């Protein structure tokens, strides 16, 4: 059990901005430090009780599509030194699986997602907030490739969703949330930016007493 509050970092940005890449590179730079990664999109609301034909019509880029209050509760549990069962979301069927993943408390918690700075209760739990600011064309191409390859979507469906909900919701919610960021990483990522962030995190974790020696 942790004796001190974990250090919580947020990694936000538009769909396809490179949030997962940044998260993985930070973890790589912080080798030897236990990290718990909590993706916001694991907390899409459970719509298993409605037909698939209706599920696909849900606006998944609006804050209301996410069970953020459960994520906040889970972060509080981890901060209290208690294990959580993080939901697992099936993007192919737009549904939450019955069994989640057990996540243990860790000195560093990384929360990533496009809308993590929209809800005040969530963003105020974070010690550092990062925003990955990537060009819209690059983000769209990455999303198109990912959704067709990993989520079984057609090109037409990805384009339709992007124009109908992704782009408008990015303008309405994601883009304005950049004002809450402490650190902005432009044009995706670089070794310099992730290295600087990793060093800052390592020092902050050490100062908080979550590590006995600096790595």
Q: What is the structure about, briefly put?
A:
The protein is an alpha/beta fold.
Walkthrough of the structure:
With 215 residues, the protein is an alpha/beta fold. The protein contains seven helices and nine strands; from the N terminus they run E-H-E-H-H-E-E-E-E-E-H-E-H-H-E-H. Helix 1 (19-29) crosses helix 7.
Q: Enumerate the strands of the largest sheet in spatial order, edge to edge or round the barrel.
A: 2-7-1-8-9
**Proportion in helices:** 25-40%
The radius of gyration over CA amounts to: 17 Å
- Please report the distance between the alpha carbons of the first and last residues: 21 Å
Q: What keyword list fits this structure?
A:
single chain, about 220 residues, alpha/beta, Rossmann fold, five-stranded parallel beta sheet, two-stranded antiparallel ribbon, 9 strands, globular
């Amino acid at each position: 059990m942790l004796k001190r509050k974990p250090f919580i970092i947020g990694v936000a940005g538009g769909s396809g901005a490179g949030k997962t890449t940044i998260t993985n590179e930070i973890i790589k730079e912080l080798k030897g430090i236990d990290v718990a990664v909590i993706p916001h999109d694991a907390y899409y609301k459970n719509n298993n009780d409605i037909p698939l034909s209706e599920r696909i019509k849900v606006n998944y880029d609006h804050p209301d599509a996410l069970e953020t209050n459960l994520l906040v509760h889970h972060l509080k549990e981890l901060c209290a030194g208690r294990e959580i069962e993080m939901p697992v979301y099936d993007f192919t069927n737009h549904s939450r699986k019955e069994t989640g993943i057990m996540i243990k408390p860790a000195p560093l918690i990384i929360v990533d997602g496009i809308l993590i700075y929209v809800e005040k209760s969530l963003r105020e739990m974070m010690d550092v907030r990062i925003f990955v600011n990537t060009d819209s064309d690059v983000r769209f191409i990455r999303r198109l490739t990912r959704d067709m390859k990993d989520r079984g979507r057609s090109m037409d469906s990805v384009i339709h969703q992007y124009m109908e909900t992704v782009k408008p919701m990015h303008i309405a919610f994601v883009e304005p949330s950049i004002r809450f960021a402490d650190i902005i990483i432009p044009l995706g990522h670089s070794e310099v930016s992730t290295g600087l962030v990793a060093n800052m995190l390592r020092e902050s974790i050490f100062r908080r007493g979550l590590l006995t020696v600096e790595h």
